[in-house]
Design a protein that fits this description.
nine-stranded mixed β-sheet
Length: about 180
């Protein structure tokens, strides 16, 4: 594993390189190049196929592969990570995509907690944002478990998103 990898529970978190981030639209190619296996159905969201991610300027500040051992193989079960927020305010935005076959197993909670702790300890962020679709009960429960606090933004809510914010003192640190 790379020097910047994380281990939480039985999961390995591996940050993608700048080149891998740029080719994330082909997750299968990135996974195979690392000698891993794709663990389920990758849900392509609107715009994924046409969008390259921002270059990874700081190791770990970008997408991370979420890897779980399954039947003796290292299997990618999701992607999580940060996109830059407002550079003048020192923020980042956390996002997740865990494959449906691996949801409701505590993976997002473990990964979210570990990545937020990593960000507060390794990059200069004052706070971390997370956006959840209105009515997405699992997402709302997750951000609340991690210690995120909902922010008022009527315009975002009218567009279907809720904005949550996490500071270092709010984080429920991993045990």
């Amino acid at each position: 594993m790379s020097d910047h990898s994380l281990k939480v529970k039985d999961l390995d978190l591996l940050p993608l390189t700048t080149e891998e981030s740029r080719s994330l639209r082909s997750l299968q190619a990135v996974v195979e190049a690392r000698g891993l296996h794709l663990g389920g159905t990758w849900i392509e969201t609107e715009g994924d196929a046409d969008q390259d991610l921002d270059p990874v300027l700081i190791p770990g500040f970008g997408p991370w592969l979420v890897i779980k051992p399954v039947e003796g193989q290292k299997v990618v079960v999701g992607v999580a990570g940060f996109t830059p927020g407002d550079p003048f305010e020192g923020s980042a935005t956390l996002g997740f995509q865990i494959m449906p076959e691996f949801q409701r197993q505590g993976i997002a909670s473990a990964v979210g907690s570990a990545l937020c702790a990593w960000a507060f300890g390794n990059i200069e962020v004052g706070y971390i944002n997370c956006f959840v679709q209105v009515g997405h009960e699992a997402g709302t429960s997750l951000v609340n478990r991690l210690g995120f606090v909902q922010q008022e933004d009527d315009e975002l809510e009218a567009e279907g998103s809720l904005w949550y914010c996490l500071t270092r003192s709010d984080l429920k640190w991993p045990s």
